Amino acid sequence: MEREKELTKLINVLRRTARVALQSQWTEANGDAAKFCVEQYNRVLARLKELDPTVSTLFEPLAAGSSLTVVAMACRQLAAYYEDEVGGSSEWPRVYGAAFDSEGFKDFWRKCAGDVQDLGEMIRESVEMWARQRRQKGGTAESSEQKTDKS
């Protein structure tokens, strides 16, 4: 498998593991969930070290008794390390369109309604883009208002 494709798959696993870790913590899952998430993080990290030895200078395997919160943080940080290479989650490009397309939102909701965290992540990841667009629209409106005031 080519490196970029495998990186994308591994980062997706990290993102999902972070999400599962937080959900398991919220639902007060038993210790098996934490153990599984720690082991999954450590397996992904080991493979990333094979693909990119420099990652070992920043990231270390998690201890067996790590909490679900620690697992989620570690997964998100490791995924963030590769964000420039692999980009955002492969799900979000179709979701960003939902902000401007009601059918896109309905489709997203049908597929993901059971996972409210997906919606929360979409909103958190979109806020900056929406604010930027609002500022740009506001700047355009202000400049056109200033031109009409001066006329």
Feature tags:
globular, 2 domains, mainly alpha, 151 residues
Q: What does the secondary structure layout of this molecule look like, with pairings?
A:
Blueprint: H1 3-26, H2 31-51, H3 68-81, H4 83-86, H5 92-96, H6 102-112, H7 116-150
Describe the structure.
It is a single chain. This protein has 151 residues and is an all-alpha fold. The protein has two domains: 1-88; 91-151. It has helices spanning 3-26, 31-51, 68-81, 83-86, 92-96, 102-112, 116-150. α2 runs parallel beside α3. It is globular. The N and C termini lie far apart (63 Å).
Could you give a short description of this structure?
The chain is mainly alpha-helical and 151 residues long. Helices cover 75% and strands 0% of the residues.
- Biggest beta-sheet profile: none
Head-to-tail CA distance between termini:
63 Å
What structural category characterises the helix and strand content?
Answer: mainly alpha
Query: What percent of residues adopt helix (DSSP H or I)?
Result: over 70%
